[in-house]
Design brief:
127 residues, alpha+beta
Length: 127
């Protein structure tokens, strides 16, 4: 499995609005397209001003790159899996661990969900 970082700029594609877990989208596949395969991991980075640039989520490639009609370039289809942006220009990472197999351990998923709920509860209380 390969891992890629896809970059956008807010004038062209604003990730603060775009990423919705479960949604599918097409991105430009320029550099390294010959190495892209379904199942590869993608992180979505937005460039630009220091107040909003950063990592906004991750997803998976769901097609091989193809010549996209009307683009004069190649595209690749992705599925958004996780959104990091919480609407306040923050990126919330709930958990990190080293995977030792393809399957994510249930306790790691539950820990991440618990931490997310804790954060959302505190955010609501504070503001």
């Amino acid at each position: 499995m390969n891992v890629f970082v896809f970059q956008s700029v807010p004038e062209r594609y604003d990730l603060r609005e775009a990423i919705s877990p479960g949604a599918k989208d097409t991105w430009y596949a320029t550099r390294y397209r010959n190495k892209m395969n379904p199942g590869d991991l993608v992180f979505f980075w937005m460039a630009g001003d220091e107040h909003f640039r950063g990592l906004y989520g991750w997803g998976k490639i769901i097609s091989t790159p193809y010549l996209k009609s009307g683009w004069e370039s190649h595209g690749v289809d992705v599925s958004y899996e996780v959104r990091f942006y919480d609407g306040l220009q923050l990126i919330i990472l709930t958990n990190g661990f080293q995977k030792k197999s393809q399957k994510t351990p249930k306790r790691e998923i539950e820990l991440a969900k618990s931490r997310k709920q804790n954060y959302l509860k505190r955010r609501k209380k504070d503001g």
